[in-house]
Write a structure and sequence with these properties.
The protein is an alpha+beta fold. The protein has helices at 54-63, 68-79, 85-97, 103-116, 137-146, 152-158, 168-171, 258-271, 273-288; strands at 6-11, 19-25, 28-31, 42-46, 51-53, 121-124, 130-134, 175-183, 187-193, 196-200, 205-213, 220-229, 251-256. The strands form 4 sheets. It has a 6-stranded antiparallel sheet. The protein has a 3-stranded antiparallel sheet with strand order 5-7-6, with helices on both faces. Helix 5 (137-146) runs antiparallel to helix 8. The longest helix is centred in the C-terminal third of the chain and has 16 residues, at 273-288. The radius of gyration is 21 Å and the shape is globular. It starts with 5 loop residues before the first strand and ends with a helix.
């Protein structure tokens, strides 16, 4: 009997930049040039997330509030691969019909629309009561549960993961060391070593956890990437992608098993205390719903 899996249509690249093709060299991924043919060393690096902050939608709305076409494209780019068409329609209508609105009223309307379509919302009291809606990985878990790829009992068991309280973000950091030499006009030469953790899930997928400097705050942050080998993927006609260029706006079909989804969730749980809380709160919301 074939393994019960969830089929998902994944863009080779996305306009939001969260998925991109890279070429593997010595455990390092280099961005692939658009003119290069795909090879066995190539993979899709997906900076997968699990919810969408209302603040992100507000910031995007403000930047394009006079363009109805850009508003429509924004909603479709973010949600068409995960959310029901009726929800997308209501979001597009709200964005297109709204120009001048206060932040508070904008978020109130968003909440009404998402709740109308039975979307799980997360309010983080420890983050100034900011509101988030389920997205990407959380939606994949919900889809997997509805399609009997994952059971409620199995998610309950997953909630017990990381009892040892591994917290990569807090326990590891970027290190800088001097090489005791200089170049051109006494520029001192230093190197930075950034922690990288790799989980080789199977011959199709692996996950990476990278520690990087925070861009807008002090300290470090853990970044989780879900990676899919190009050689394991077929196009919509069932043909290999190897030996040709990626087509514009091309999508491919990937099969995700229960173990695949669990491994991605576990990667988040050990990345940081905050990610652990987020992931488990979302999973509790899914089985409760």
């Amino acid at each position: 009997m074939p393994e019960n899996t969830l089929k998902y249509e994944l863009p080779l690249t996305t306009s939001t930049g969260r998925a991109r093709v890279k070429r593997r060299k010595n455990e390092f991924g280099e961005p692939l040039k658009t003119e290069d043919n795909l090879s066995n060393e190539d993979y899709i690096e997906w900076q997968i997330s699990y919810f969408m902050p209302f603040d992100t939608l507000w910031d995007k709305f403000k930047s394009i509030k006079r363009s109805k076409q850009k508003k429509k494209e924004l909603i479709e780019d973010y949600f068409r691969d995960f959310k029901p068409s009726e929800l997308i329609r209501d979001l597009v209508n709200f964005f297109e019909q709204t120009e001048d609105i206060q932040r508070k009223d904008f978020k109130k309307k968003l909440k009404e629309i998402f709740e109308k379509h039975n979307q799980i919302l997360i309010i983080k009291e420890h983050k100034d009561n900011k509101t988030y809606v389920m997205y990407e990985l959380a939606d994949l878990f919900e889809m997997a549960m509805k399609n009997n790829v994952i059971s409620k009992r199995e998610i309950e068991e997953l909630l017990n993961f990381n009892k040892e309280k591994v917290d990569i973000e807090n326990q590891y950091s970027v290190k800088r060391k001097s090489l005791n030499k200089s170049i051109s006009e006494n520029f001192e030469y230093y190197e930075e070593n950034a922690p990288l953790f790799i989980k080789r899930m199977n011959d199709k997928f692996f996950t990476e956890i990278q520690i990087k400097h925070k861009q807008k705050a002090v300290g470090y942050q853990g970044m989780v990437y879900f990676c899919i080998w190009i050689k394991s993927i077929k196009d919509k006609e069932g043909k290999s992608l190897i030996g040709r260029k990626a087509k514009s706006n091309e999508k491919v079909i990937i099969d995700l098993s229960k173990e695949d989804l669990f491994n991605i969730a576990k990667s988040f749980m050990i990345t940081s205390k905050d990610h652990d809380w987020d992931m488990k709160t979302i999973l509790k919301g899914i089985i409760k719903g």
